[in-house]
Structure formats: C-alpha cells, structure tokens
Automatic annotation (TrEMBL), chains A, B:
Name of the featured protein: Fatty-acyl-CoA synthase
KW Phosphoprotein (keyword) present: no
Claim: Lipid metabolism is one of the keywords in the record: yes
Domain AMP-binding enzyme C-terminal: 453-527
Protein's organism: Pseudonocardia ammonioxydans
Amino acid sequence: MLGLMQDRPLTLPHVFHRAEQYFGHRELVTATPAGTTVTTTIAEWAVRVRRLAGVLDTLGVSADGRVGTFCWNTARHLELYMAVPCTGRVLHTLNLRLFPDQLVYVADHAEDEVVFVERSLLGMFWPHVDRLSTVRHVVVIDDVGAGGPALPDDPRIRDYEELLAAAEPHAGRFVVDDENTAAAMCYTSGTTGNPKGVVYSHRSTLLHSLATLFADGVGLTERDVVLPVVPMFHANAWGLPYGCLLAGSSMVLPGPNMAPDALLSLMSTHRATVAAGVPTIWMGLLPKLGEYDLSSLRTVLCGGSAVPRSLSEGFRAAIGLPLLQGWGMTETSPVASLGLLRTVHDDLSEDEQADVRAMQGPPVPLVELRIADPTTGEEQPWDGVSTGEVQAAGPWIAAEYYRGEGGGAQFTDDGWLKTGDVAVVDRHGYTKLVDRTKDLVKSGGEWISSVDLENEIMAHPKVAEAAVIAIAHEKWVERPLACVVVEDGESLTGEELIEFLSGRVAKWWLPDAVEFIEEVPKTSVGKFSKKTLREKFSGYALPS
Amino acid sequence: MLGLMQDRPLTLPHVFHRAEQYFGHRELVTATPAGTTVTTTIAEWAVRVRRLAGVLDTLGVSADGRVGTFCWNTARHLELYMAVPCTGRVLHTLNLRLFPDQLVYVADHAEDEVVFVERSLLGMFWPHVDRLSTVRHVVVIDDVGAGGPALPDDPRIRDYEELLAAAEPHAGRFVVDDENTAAAMCYTSGTTGNPKGVVYSHRSTLLHSLATLFADGVGLTERDVVLPVVPMFHANAWGLPYGCLLAGSSMVLPGPNMAPDALLSLMSTHRATVAAGVPTIWMGLLPKLGEYDLSSLRTVLCGGSAVPRSLSEGFRAAIGLPLLQGWGMTETSPVASLGLLRTVHDDLSEDEQADVRAMQGPPVPLVELRIADPTTGEEQPWDGVSTGEVQAAGPWIAAEYYRGEGGGAQFTDDGWLKTGDVAVVDRHGYTKLVDRTKDLVKSGGEWISSVDLENEIMAHPKVAEAAVIAIAHEKWVERPLACVVVEDGESLTGEELIEFLSGRVAKWWLPDAVEFIEEVPKTSVGKFSKKTLREKFSGYALPS
C-alpha cells in the first residue's frame, strides 16, 4: 500500500517558490551601518536569489560545497539563506563572535569553499584568510559604500553586486530531490574541546519552519512584520527567516546596530508585530520601552538562556506583553519548547502565571522531551521535584555531530540528544531548567545546583555577577567554588558573602571558598564560560 | 552529509502520545442518539485506545489489515481513528450515505477484515453483510443501549465494550517506523465508474494535521473547542480529529443529529470556538443564529462545495463572522487551499472583501496549485481571466488510486493531480472555481460554464434548484440542457426561463432546451450528481 500519496520532498525550494509566487508584495527592511534603512520587496529579493544561484555556479562551488557567510541580519544574508541550499550547497553561517582560532578551525573543518563577508566586517575576517586552507573566494557585500575600508588587492576578493549583475539567473524551479540533503550547518561551542558542527537537512529545516507557523507558538502569518534580533549566524536565527518566507511575513533586519534605541526605533517605525532575541538584548531595551510606540507588537520571543522572571514581568508591566520563552540549542534547530500558558493555568494568580512563563514549557509538536538521571540514564518522573538531564527527540534534533566529532557521548543508545541541561518536569509536562549537567556539583553523592547557588550569591547587593564551579575534593568528590565579581566601587569579603548565604541555602551547599575575579568569562554567544573558569582554577586547592 | 539529523518518522503514534502526555485534561463531548451528551477526558480516551489496540490483536486483524468503520462523529470513532493506524492497520471509514451496492463494493475492494458499526446504524449495515466477502467480525458499538434494535444472533457479531473490557491494553509506545505506511483510506465517487480508493499515509496525515495548526488558517490551539459537523467518514473530517489531538483542542462530536437546533445548542452549551461543515449545514443554521449565544466562535470553516457568497455574508451579518472557505477533495486529504484575506485586500470595500472570501484562495503551505488547459495541458496565466483545470501537488495529495484504479487518467506526466475543477487564478494566486471539467459545455470550441449558467437559472424566483449538462450536438459538438426543479406550488415554462436568462448571459450560452424534473439527483456526499443526469438524458434529442 505504498506510494499512493505523492512523493514530494520537504525541501527549501518549496519555501522559495511559495514566497516568490504569493508574497512578492511583502517587504524586507534592512538597517545599514550608516543608520539608514533600505527596503526591498520579496519580488525583488527573489530575482536576486535567482541571480545569486548563478553566481555560485560562476564561482565553481561544488555541487554540495559549503558556502560560508560572515554577515549581520540583512536582506542580502537572506539571499544567501535561500540561494545556497536551493542549489544543493550547504550554508555555513560563521559566528561573528568566534575567536580567530575558532573561526579558522570551523571554516577549515567545514571545508568552506567561498565566504561571503560584509565589508564592514572585513577587518575582522581578512587578517585570518591565509590560514583558511579551502577558501578560494571572499565575496565582499558592500554594506558601507564609498566611505568604507579599502579592499585588499587580492585575486580572492570578489564584489557581490558585480557578480550578481554578471550572473545568469536560475530559470524555472529549483530542485532538491532528497529531503535528507544537507541545507545548512552551524558550529556550537561545547563545554570541552573544539566547536562541533550541527548539520541541518532540508527536511529538518522545513519542518522546523512549519513550527513557527503554529498558532500555539509564534504563529507567523502574512500580516506579520518580524524583527529577528537573534543573529542569522546563530542557529538560523531560530528558524524565523525561513518561517517568514513560508508565511509571507515582512521582516525588519537590524544589521549591526543592536543599541536599544536603534532597535526600538526600528520596531516602532516599521510596526513590528514579532521580535526575537536573547535576554541581554531585552534587558537593554526594558528601561526605554515607554519612550516608543510599540502598540504593534504581539509577541516578543526570548531564548538562548533562561529568561529571568523579572525581565518578562518588566515587559508585561511596560507594554502589557510578557516575553514568550523559547528553549533549545543549536543541536535542536533550535526551537524545542515554548513557555506558553495553557488552560490548566487559567485559574492561577498573575504571580503564579509569571512563574509558569519562567519555565521552559512543553515541547512543540514533533519534538519529544524526557528527563533522565545523568549517571544511570534512568528516566525520571514528571513530579515537579525529580531532576534529570533533558533528552530530546524529533525530526529537527541532531543525531550526531559533523564528521562524528565527540563520538556518541552526547546521544543515548536509543538516539535521543542529551542536551546537558538539567530540569524538573511538572505534571503538565512543563520543563523547568535547574542547571547544566557539566555545572552540577556532586558533593557526597548529592547534587548541588550551581545555578541556584549563583542566583543566591547574585542576590547580594554588592555582587555584580557570579559563577559557581566544582572543585575536586578528596572526601566529597566535588565541592563548590564561588567566583564573584563585585560591583564597581564596592568591597566585599568571602566571610561576608558566606554569612549572607547562611540561612538562604542548605549548609552543605555553602561554597568552600570564594574567589574574587574581574569578570565572568563569556562564550562567543554571551553565555558564562565555565569551561574557561574551570581551566583557570584547575588544580585549585580548597581550604581543608 | 546525510543522517546528521534524527531519523524520526512522521507517524501518528506521535499524535497519540502527545495527546496522552500533555492533553489528558482536555475533553471529548459526544451527543448521543437519545439527545444527551457523554463527556470523556483525553486521559480516559487514551486508556481506551490502548485497550482497543489489544482488541485488534484479539480479533486477529492482519498486521496491515483494513478495519472498516460505519459510525457517526463520536469519541468512540475517535478511538478507532487512533488505535487502528497506531498498530499499523489501515482505517477505512465507510461513508454512511453509500448506496448498498457501493458499500459492498468498497468494503470488498478494500478487503475490510472487521467493521465497527454503531448499533443505531446496524439496520443499514447488517442486511448486506452476507455479500461482504472478507469481513469476519462486525463489532457493535452500542450507542443506544437497552432500547436499541435487537442484535442478530450471529457469531460474527461482537460487542465493543465487552471486547475492550477483556483486552490486554497496549503497553509502552506505539511504533510505526516507516512514515509511508498506509494509515487510512477513503473512497470517492468519481464522475464515472466505481468509487475509487484514496490511501493516506502516516506521513501525509501527520503533515496535513500540522496544517490545521497554522495561524493563517484554522490555527488550532490547546484553548480551542472544535465541533466538526463534517463527518468523520468523509476525508478524515478534514483532518480536524488528528489536528485537535496534536494541538490539544477539546472536541464536541455531534453524533447523528444534524438538526440546526441540535448543532446550535451544542455549540452554545459547550462554548465551541471552531466549527466545520458543508454549505448545506450552515444554510440550515443561518436563520436561527440569533437565537443562541455563539460568542465563543472564532472560526466557522466551510467546504465540500463552493461557498455561496450570500451564505458567508449571512453569517457575517448575524454573528460578525464570515465563513472561512476551505477547498479540496478526498484526493487532497482534503485541505488544499483556504479563502483567507491578506494584506493586499485591506484596502478593498467590505463588498469586495466578500468577493475575495467567495474565492477558494491560495494553497496552504506544502501544497502547490496551477491551472492548465484540460485538453492540451498547457499551463495558464494567473490573470484572473484565463481558465484551466486546477492541478495540485504536495505531500498530502494522491499520486494514484488504490490498486491503480482509473489508471493514470487523473494524474499528469509530472505527477500532479488533475482535480477536475476548473478555475481562474488572480495575480495574488487566489483560485476561483468556475466549473468541473466534466461539467463544462464545449460549444463551437468555446467553453460554457455550467456552474455560472446554473447560478443564473437559480436566480429565477420560481426555481428551487437547477443543473446544466452537456448534450451532444452535430454542429456545435455540445450544447447545454437545463434540468430545472420548480419551487413547490409554482409553475414555470421553458420559454419564460429563457426569456429571464436573455440579457443575463451571452446569447450563445442560452440552453437549447429546458427539462423540468422532480429533484436534482445527489451523490452520497450531497453534491449534484450530474453523472446520474447525464445517464438519464443520454441520447437526448435537442430541438433543431
């Protein structure tokens, strides 16, 4: 009884042709480094995508070659988002915040053949170009014009607009027959070792895009105007670019300027209905929300790290709209769950509802989540108390890393992703993160949550930020070390801090030592880099 | 670069386990033949689905055996909707309105091994049971209780509740590994010959269910209460049952009573947010809308045949909510397009917007539509004027009929479905049906739209209904014959009708003859059966 339904692959050409055929009137607004905006229609964009497909042939990019991008959120980046996978190549979005050695490592590891670089970013990219062993062309997208930095006199340098003008546009339909063909890839910094590549297939990307259309979620429609602050170089900007093209939403692309006033002005001027970014971005905007007309906004999506309850409530107080929390990671495409309220929460107080929104919520359709003991792998009950590592399954969840890096360590025997996040799950299936597995402190057979401990330390008025790491201990296996940054102009002793914590946490949770540091080191995506701290304090001797 | 994303099949067990794990608190309300309602939770329903899976084993149904259902829209039918495909069997929903010979034909053709029949329907089913060559068990679902018709004393008769009580419930997860496995099938009456089977795969059914969640569409959520009047024996009730389980929507299942007051009372009492049915149903409800509190309704979906503009406007006038038109057919799972307004229509007058809603609209994501000349196959432009047969492609569109019936006649060389509907498409990609290919009248090389002509005839105040068919003509190839039903108590002559039409249609469109008939014959799904009329008037001699 097979084959009675059409064998139509779930591939990105469907998204392109749908946008081209039905949504030509919708707009892409891009903010430039000069502070102006450039508006183009989807119809105009589609013509350029067809030309760009010709450019990739002109440049001799292999049939399944990796094409790097080193770009902000712009309409031109969106051209690459479509032309590269629709011609069978693989879009490799390079993270602008990678350290040079990492940048070189990932471009080499992916074997990028060509890299498209915005001219304003060339100064960050070009110094490392001679270390890139596979890159044959560096195509410069001129986002700054005549006043921009001079271009190197080098045969590898090509001009984006010149190439487009000279190219033969792709005629007719794009065809990618096998939905399991790779469409895009993105590297993620693990807790140890080199960044590892996650490869998204056409199928996984298209299914993930469908999820951005669900009414119980972001629910993109043709009426929306979407401003993704989340970078297009990071996990496909949470799938919003492809989702918008599929739904026919207009987009406002903020370019390089992430200053609160720049973003608020874009939102207000272009009547954005949906915006998406990490907590740090929304923290910056919070004090200024009242200064702009944001009445068009209906959803403010927040993810990348746990959304502070106070931030979401701050938005609700200021504009009547709490943040919608999304949870996931590069390995999950990235949207795995959303912190939506359901009918079971209707009778809760506003305060209790805010607690629910601070959870990571239930999985979106097609994704499955469970929690399991990090050591034994035993599945844990959904009782709101038992903790376990979150494991994820679904058609847009990674099964392995590119080239098998890291072996199978991050995957279970039955093929689920071990996310490294530790959570409890309540009886409604709502996930609440409590820590990272790598950051748990295992003391005398019991777990200490470094996140909980950090929150208590940061509650001290003189503490700017703090990170807790585990230090090896002869008797207890591990004990916590608190690494603390004091607020400018204040002073604090370890004894004062321990005294402050007494009564706030269990006695056996109290840090064995406190180290005062200048700042907590951050990863390329702005998270606390405990890996760096652990390296810094390796061999640390706790007071006996 | 393959296999880097998890190979998770798109199969219905995902829908079942999602409903069971996250939506146990949501409800299924079923109206009984006695006029009462029975309410069950999804949690209770899920336990029964697990038992029913055991029953299918007990009955010895083959691993991929066809399981017939002869049921109304009820929670028990929904148990079959899930248990049958989740155990790898194929759900064959038998149309209650089939004529006995057709019923016997389709059950035999599908090789149904067991049929589940509601006791109130046994009188329609049992007389034909001895003609069914593959049916070994008739499981009676007792929807009427002690007062119901006596059960035949026959070893084939089994009681649903007794079987459930005795069964071993399925433990753990349901597993269907191959997403191309058949999940369900439905027969459709063509314009000629026997009914033909359309087989839905797990993949097609799950993807189609996702489409019911899109915000630009029905947009089902966990907050919805959905009342499908459209029968569950017809094209999976437009995908709503699986969509509701995936979204967590509660359902109100109307059972056998389709009387306007019964439906309105259910909607009002249970605060339905979404309802779905064919135009005939909504025509019946229209005069009574004001008598009920329908303030909970947000979407009234209408499809199955073109939605009269006046009906949709009648709903808008009465409850502020026009009908949302869906277009499709059994072969398209069935939702292919939706008549939504987009931003391009914002500046139109209310009257013009009503015209847009009377169109069948653009395709939903993953579906593609085009129009082509029915004779040459040449694709036609989207200019709002050129007509062509609508052709459809997508992962939930049929590629062939079960057992290859009908050959490839209804499919193009490049694998698109020829829908038999004739339409124009405007520049925004909105489809507007003008006729069925089989019903076009080809006069002197030009097409006469039988639908347009019927609409003009039915505009005569003394005409109750009318159908136009083509009659062979020596000179013009074909000419129109009008088959007209006069309103009760009125009289009308052919001459009066032709005079009425003069000036309303082009002179060469005027019917060559008018025949007065008692009623227009209908198909099993309530559409005009022009096939029957053509048979009745075969060899008809037009006046020269």
